[in-house]
Input
Amino acid sequence: MKSDVEVIGLDALEWDEQVAGIRLKTVVAADGSTWNRVTYRPGAVRDDVWCEKGHRGFVLEGAMSYEYQDGETFTISAGDGSIVSPGRAHRGHNVSDAQATFLMIDDAPEMEFGR
Output
């Protein structure tokens, strides 16, 4: 394999259930970004914390709704992606009747969003 390619292997990792109904597999890449495969059971909501990290995501199945602390919301469904800028508190929940699965890449701490 070429030395300028990094394979992000999530499949072989164990699931980490952070809160009831929400689990993830996480790998920190060589560039400092964090790759997450995340599943939310139907109706599962991340209401224990507000996140201020920047994310890039793609929904593989189901639908996810995100709420900002100021009340604004957006929803993404299977086949859709999103880019969330860092610094604005947000959290997600599964708004579908099925499991929601998505890939979420957290920006490396030293990366400037959009550059």
Q: What stands out?
A: The beta strands are 16-19, 22-28, 34-40, 55-61, 63-68, 73-77, 81-84, 90-94, 100-106. The mean pLDDT is 89. Residues 16-106 form a domain with the Jelly Rolls fold (CATH 2.60.120.10).
